[in-house]
Structure formats: C-alpha cells, structure tokens
C-alpha cells in the first residue's frame, strides 16, 4: 500500500511530497470514493513511528516484534482519533499473525477489521480486510469460507 511506502521512505517529507499527496488524495476520492488517505492525513500521527517499525519488522521476518509494534501503533492512532491509521496498523498486525500461524487471533482480528472497514468510506481497505479474513480462514483449513470471502472481496 501507498502508506507503507510513504512511512518507510519518508516520502511525504521530500520536495513535492505534500503536493503529490494532495493530488493522490484528490484522485482517490474523486475516482474511487476512497477517503482513507484524507482521513489519515487530517488526523494526528502519534502512531507513525511504531507503525514504521512494525512494517520494517514484517519485512525482515521479525513477526513477534511486528505484532508488538503494530499493537503500539494502533493504540497510538486510536488515542488520537486516527481511525484510518488504527485500521492500517491492525492490518500490519494481521500480516504478522498469519506468518506466525496464530490462527484464532488472526480470525478474530480479521473479522473485526473487516467489520470496521465496511463501516467507513475506505474501499481499498474493505477489499484488503476481506482478503486478510480469507487468509485467516485458510489457515484454519476452512478453504470453502476462504474462497467465498476472496470472491466477495
């Protein structure tokens, strides 16, 4: 996702970064009716350092650390009212849970993420949350449910 790359590279702080973010925001809203980036940028960013660390831990295969950092990021975003950031941090946590085969926690977290995403104008997050839920169903050996969710997403 775009947010991952922006968080890892500090892209938003580069020359023309804010202008490019503004253009991207307009495109996402006008063409896709997706307000995730708008909401993320307008809210406080107290969870960004931990979110960046969670992404880096996931990339390096340090999944226990990724779970911990993603939980901290979600908490920081939640405390400052950044719902968009909170949901993305939960998604980063889900990735680590899947890689460590934490099936029960994966399923309950994915179901909650999907329900939360469906209540907001975040179509890309809604699709991704459905795919995360499908992956968790698959971990549990419920291939039929996983395939149905994948198709629904």
What portion of the residues fall into strands of 2 or more residues? under 5%
Ends: how far apart?
Answer: 17 Å
User: Biggest sheet, in brief?
Assistant: none
Task: Report the oligomer.
Answer: single chain
Approximately how much helix is present in the residues? over 70%
Mean pLDDT: 88
Q: What order do the helices and strands follow?
A: HHHHHHHHH
* Rg estimate, integer Å: 15 Å
Backbone shape: globular
Tally of extended strands? 0
SS class? mainly alpha
Low-confidence stretches: none
Q: Give the helix tally.
A: 9
Describe the structure.
The protein is mostly helical. 79% of the residues lie in helices and 0% in strands. It contains 9 helices and no strands. The chain has helices at residues 2-9, 17-32, 36-42, 48-60, 63-79, 83-99, 103-118, 123-139, 143-152. The two termini are 17 Å apart. The mean pLDDT is 88.
Annotation keywords:
153 residues, single chain, mainly alpha
How does the SSE layout of this entry go?
Elements: H1 2-9, H2 17-32, H3 36-42, H4 48-60, H5 63-79, H6 83-99, H7 103-118, H8 123-139, H9 143-152
Question: In short, what is this structure?
Answer:
This protein has 153 residues and is mainly α. The chain contains nine helices and no strands. The model has no long low-confidence stretch (mean pLDDT 88).
């Amino acid at each position: 996702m775009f947010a991952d790359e922006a968080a890892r590279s500090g892209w938003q702080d580069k020359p023309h970064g804010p202008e490019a973010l503004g253009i991207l925001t307009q495109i996402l809203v006008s063409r896709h009716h997706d307000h995730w980036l708008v909401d993320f940028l307008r809210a406080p960013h107290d969870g960004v350092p931990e979110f960046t660390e969670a992404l880096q831990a996931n990339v390096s295969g340090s999944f226990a650390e990724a779970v911990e950092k993603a939980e901290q990021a979600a908490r920081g975003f939640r405390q400052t009212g950044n719902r968009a950031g909170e949901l993305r941090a939960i998604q980063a946590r889900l990735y680590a849970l899947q890689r460590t085969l934490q099936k029960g926690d994966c399923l309950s977290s994915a179901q909650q993420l999907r329900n939360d995403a469906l209540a907001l104008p975040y179509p890309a997050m809604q699709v991704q949350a459905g795919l995360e839920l499908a992956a968790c169903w698959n971990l549990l050996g419920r291939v039929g449910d996983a395939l149905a969710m994948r198709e629904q997403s």
